[in-house]
Design goal:
single chain; alpha/beta; six-stranded parallel β-sheet; two-stranded antiparallel ribbon; 13% strand
C-alpha cells in the first residue's frame, strides 16, 4: 500500500519511524480480516490516518511509535486517498466514524461484546444505547470515561486496562482523540493481545447525538473539514493551517514514489 513520510523526524532528532503504511485497501478487506481475528481470538488495533495525524507524527515520537504498532491503518481523509493515487496506489476512503457501524454489526453477529472508552459518561451511555438499538444482539460490556489529563501509558491507564480485561469485551472503541487514543491502543494491545482496539475520535459523540456530523452532501464534495471549521474556528484554524502546509511536501513525496516505481519496472 501507500507510504507517507511524515517528513523530518530524523532531522528533528526523533527516533520514531519515518513512514506510515496505509495497509487497508477497502472496507471489505478490513472486515474480512477482522472477522478472522475475532473468530480466532486474535487482537488488532486500527488507526485512521489523516493530515492532522501526519502533522502530529512529525512532532511526537511516542505517537509515531504507537502508530507503527497498529495492525491496520486506513485512509481517514480524502487528501490521503488523493496522495495515494498520486503515488500510483488506489485505496478506499475509510473514516473511523463510517467504520463504527459495520464493525459493531460484525461484533454483534459473532457474539463479541464491546467496550466504549473515552468521552464522557453521559455520551458513552447514549452511544451504548444507540449502538444496541442499531445492532440488535450487540452487548456493551462496559463504558469507561477517563478523567481530564489522562495519561495513556501511566498507572491509571494500566488500571483501565485491567478493567477492560475484566469486562470480557473483545472489542474496544476508543474516543480519546489523537494522539492519546492511538498511544493507549498500542499500550493496551500489548497487554491484551486477544482484544481489538479501534480509535474513532468523535465517533461516539456522533452516535450519542452530542455532536453533529457534516451532511452527506458536504462529505461527498470532500468539504467536511470546512463544516467542522465553521463550527469551531477558534480550535481548528491552526490545525487545518498546519495540515495545508504539509501538503506540498507530501505531494512531492508521492510523485517520487510513483517515479521510483516506474524506474524499477
Amino acid at each position: 500500500m501507500s507510504m507517507y513520510w511524515p517528513g523530518n523526524l530524523t532531522e528533528q532528532g526523533g527516533s520514531g519511524p519515518s513512514a506510515v503504511t496505509v495497509n487497508v485497501p477497502s472496507e471489505q478487506a478490513l472486515l474480512s480480516d477482522l472477522r478472522d481475528r475475532m473468530e480466532q481470538g486474535r487482537g488488532f488495533s486500527i488507526a485512521t490516518l489523516n493530515l492532522d495525524h501526519i502533522v502530529k507524527l512529525t512532532r511526537q515520537d511516542d505517537f509515531a511509535r504507537a502508530y507503527a504498532e497498529h495492525t491496520h491503518v486506513t485512509a481517514d481523509g480524502n487528501p490521503i486517498v488523493w496522495l495515494s493515487r498520486l503515488a500510483g496506489d488506489r485505496i478506499a476512503l475509510l473514516p473511523g466514524s463510517d467504520l463504527i457501524d459495520p464493525i459493531a454489526k460484525l461484533a454483534a453477529e459473532l457474539g463479541v461484546s464491546v467496550a466504549l472508552f473515552g468521552s464522557t459518561t453521559e455520551a458513552l451511555d447514549a452511544a451504548a444505547q444507540g449502538l444496541q438499538k442499531n445492532h440488535p444482539g450487540l452487548t456493551v460490556a462496559t463504558t469507561l470515561a477517563p478523567p481530564m489529563g489522562f495519561d495513556p501509558t501511566g498507572e491509571e491507564a494500566d488500571a483501565f486496562i485491567e478493567a477492560l480485561n475484566a469486562s470480557g469485551a473483545g472489542l474496544c472503541f476508543l474516543a480519546l482523540g489523537a494522539p492519546k487514543q492511538e498511544i493507549f491502543a498500542a499500550h493496551a494491545q500489548a497487554r491484551l493481545p486477544h482484544m481489538g482496539f479501534m480509535s474513532i475520535g468523535a465517533g461516539l459523540d456522533f452516535i450519542a447525538g452530542h455532536q453533529r456530523r457534516a451532511p452527506k452532501i458536504v462529505r461527498r464534495f470532500a468539504a467536511e473539514w470546512l463544516w467542522r471549521l465553521s463550527l469551531d474556528p477558534g480550535r481548528l484554524f491552526k490545525r487545518y493551517a498546519a495540515c495545508i502546509a504539509v501538503l506540498p511536501g507530501l505531494c512531492v513525496t508521492a510523485l517520487q514514489v510513483r517515479l521510483g516505481r516506474g524506474r524499477q519496472r
